[in-house]
Amino acid sequence: MQEIKIELTKTPKQKPQDQSKLGFGKIFTDHMYIMPYNKEHGWHDPKIVPYQPITLEPSAMVFHYGQEMFEGLKAYKTEDGRVLLFRPDKNIARANHSNDRLCIPEIPADDFLNALKTLVKVDKDWIPTQPGTSLYIRPFVIATDPFLGVRPSDTYLFIIILSPSGAYYESGLDPVKIWIEDDYVRAVRGGIGEAKTGGNYVASLAAQVKAHDEGYSQVLWLDGVERKYIEEVGAMNIFFKINGKVVTPMLNGSILPGVTRASCIDLCKHWGMEVEERRISVDELVEAAKSGALEECWGSGTAAVISPVGALRYEDTVMEIGGGGIGPVSQKLYDTVTGLQTGKVEDTFGWTVEVDG
Ligand code: COI
Fold this sequence. Notes:
Blueprint: E1 5-6, E2 31-38, E3 42-43, E4 47-50, H1 61-65, E5 68-70, E6 73-77, E7 83-86, H2 88-101, H3 109-122, E8 134-143, E9 156-165, E10 176-181, H4 198-202, H5 205-213, E11 218-222, E12 230-233, E13 237-242, E14 245-249, H6 259-270, E15 275-278, H7 282-291, E16 294-301, E17 305-314, E18 317-320, H8 328-341, E19 352-355
Parallel strand pairs: 1-4, 10-11, 10-17, 14-15
Antiparallel strand pairs: 2-3, 2-4, 2-9, 5-8, 6-7, 6-8, 7-19, 8-9, 11-12, 13-14, 13-16, 16-17, 17-18
The chain binds 2-OXO-4-methylpentanoic acid.
């Protein structure tokens, strides 16, 4: 494992005073991690330095062809002052899976974990502690070759920044309204839908703007081929409770394999619920809503945690779910996931990793 050089800031910033006004991803801590890659040295010379702008050539490949990977995870402070990461091994594995798909060199898992732990430790006083808040961690890799031809870059930067954050949606745990998109698509099988990369998110913007204009906060995507099967929401995976069973779209190559998604499945099974990962058609959903079989719906994501869905709209049909309130499974998942993350619920799964010191 490579040793990280640490240069501490001489001008620490003021930390946010009012944790109820953090919002999501707007404030950044005093430090960042940065590690370059080139063909000669591989990933080398990792450093933690004061948070600062980076200088890139206007010709850097990331600006032109979008060769980049990003991740999202969170750090929490427990009541007794310990600092916990939630399933960082899963994010590291997914990052390298995305890297493979995007022709970015893999990052050694031990260097990645050491980077996360060391940076969070340096900025641990920035971790907010109010319920619903956390330190959001954003690792990413960008392609930096100054070149306009289309090929994988030979040089990269791996950077990690930290952002003390509150709820992803302004509404917090209040149920969100979701628009089922039947015109634009996000990803197709064989494409890059399974990778965590900017291209998937820019592909989502036009539909998101349309949904916002109609008073909906997110878009639920249908499959890119038949536009018939449920895939995922812009920043979350999606779950339904239909006739007592928990149902979520199976991972098919175009859906992001969410860490919170995996945790929801594990927890529901642990509680003895039946969980199905399978294809769900939008017609099945409309039918289930009509007959009353659709009992609950929620999204899962690192940023969003568990986000109850109060209404879904498909074409001209508006499906109200659970009277627009927070369903019992959504609430139990939210309480358990955040309880594990903040050390309030005993971690019998071995999901939390302590940042020592
Ligand atoms: C996350 O949940 O961490 C994500 O990366 C989603 C992002 C678009 C906010």
